[in-house]
Amino acid sequence: MSLSRRTLLAACAGLPFATLDPASARSAGQDAGLGALAARSGRYFGAAVSSIDFAGDNAYARLLDTDCSVWVASWEMKWGALMPTLGGAIDFRAADVIVAAAARHGKRLRGHTLLWHEHLPAGAERLSTPADWQRFVAPHIATVAGRYRDAVFEWDVVNEAIEPYDGGADLMRRTPFYAMLGPDYVAEAFRLAAEAAPSARLYLNDDHVYYAEDWQEQRRTGLLRLLERLVKAGVPVHGLGMQGHLDTRRRFDEQVFRRFLQSLEDLGLTLAVTELDVTEAPDASGRSLDARRRRAAEEVRKVLAVALDSPALVGVVTWGLSDADSWLRKRGPDMFDNQGLPYDDALQPTPFRETLASLFASTRSRHAS
Ligand code: 9MR
Asked: What angle (nearest 5°) sits at the alpha carbon of residue 129, between those of residues 126 and 132?
């Protein structure tokens, strides 16, 4: 949890309850909650959470409860969070807090993430041989996926495997995992995850595949090539997690995005929007807060309206619910007041939330013929 949310929660204690009560915030939308609305078309809605969100009863936790059917740990299940130093003890306590809270509140959990080149245990950046994989990486996947085999319904098995700028013909990111096994590390990770968590749906999670710019086209090409290889080889991959860090400065082309979704459908894969939020502050000059929020919502509408047209889309997760807690705010001085999530700093619903609610309410079922 960010300092800003801590401050906010502390402030809540001294304010009249109704000011920040999520139920009253939600009543502005007069709806059953985003999770319930998404369920009407056979989908889920969720948000990233932190273990600290569940420290006692608080307005933010209640909002996570009323609006979400799915939660995902923003940090606690990453390898470096579980094991700060390579080969050291594993500490499951923070992750277990989220698992227990999800069970208490009847939420389904996405698991994020088994392999990511960031947030590694100290020392893991030096792993480079197949023996390293056997000694450290394979047991990590087996242990974590195995421990949460009944708790996690969808795993982001590999996060951010594609990076055309790294220069490889396969467009894959050069990471310690790649150094250990070459491009086959992805298939191996999925096989290990499937063995440890046989009923979980297994996702490749990545970003920057929805805008028209050339660099995103290259990323789409890299991802589709990798997914096609995995599917053809019979690797147990079930879907693409599309992070969905939208940006009002980019160019959206509906046809380009539709084509990409069609390619996923053709491969028999599902799609989850896994980390939705909007960067708008660097492009905000001269606009009122209200206009900025409406612009962020319009960005969400453009992309999600197309995604919701696809039967491949299983659900949408935002990367936090309130701007007070957004990682985007920490990205640089021009981002300090970014308006990119469904609730503002005071936990009041924004046009982003209204847009999600109306899209979910008006979408036909993904199972309709
Ligand atoms: O929002 C997450 C932040 O709290 C963590 O400190 C950070 C490092 O673990 O990861 C952030 O989430 C990232 C996600 O795991 C992968 N896609 C990009 C997200 C924003 O950096």
From this structure: 75
CA angle 45, 311, 217 (to 5 degrees): 90
If you measure from the C-alpha of residue 264 to the centroid of ligand 1, how many angstroms do you get, rounded to a whole number?
Answer: 25
Name the residue at shortest CA distance from atom 21 of ligand 1.
327
Per domain, the residue ranges of the chain are 5-362
Nearest atom within ligand 1 for CA of residue 78:
9
For ligand 1, say whether the CB of 275 is within 6 Å of any of its atoms.
Answer: yes
Q: Is 243 in the pocket of ligand 1 (CB under 6 A)?
A: yes
| Under 8 Å between Cβ of 204 and 157 | yes
Q: Where are the beta strands (DSSP E) in 182-312?
A: 201-206, 239-242, 245-247, 270-279
Residue having the nearest C-alpha atom to atom 5 of ligand 1: 75
- pLDDT more than 90, % of the chain: 89
- Measured from the Cα of 48, ligand 1's closest atom is 1
Please state which architecture CATH assigns to domain 5-362. Alpha-Beta Barrel (3.20)
Is the preceding omega at residue 113 within 30 degrees of 0, hence cis?
yes
Q: How far is the CA of 75 from the centre of ligand 1 (A)?
A: 7
From the list 194, 176, 159, 197, the residue with the least C-alpha distance to 78 is: 159
Q: Which residue has the tokens 């139920």?
A: 23
pLDDT in tens, 110-167: 999 999 999 999 999 999 999 999 999 999 999 999 999 999 999 999 999 999 999 9
Strands 313-318 and 245-247: unpaired
Atom 7 in ligand 1: residue holding the nearest Cα: 75
Give the separation between CA 253 and CA 263, rounded to whole angstroms.
16
Confidence of residue 221 (pLDDT cuts 50, 70, 90): very high
Residue with CA nearest ligand 1 atom 8: 119
| Distance of alpha carbon 287 from alpha carbon 293, whole angstroms | 10
The closest of 297, 315, 310, 274 to 358, measured between CA atoms, is 297
Q: Is the pTM of this model over 0.90?
A: yes
How far is residue 161 CA from its own chain's centroid?
A: 15
Distance from Cα 30 to the centre of ligand 1, integer Å: 32
Task: Please tell me the distance between residue 74's alpha carbon and the centre of ligand 1 in angstroms.
Answer: 6
Task: Tell me, using a 6 A CB cutoff, whether residue 79 lines ligand 1.
Answer: no
Tell me the C-alpha distance between 304 and 360, whole Å.
10
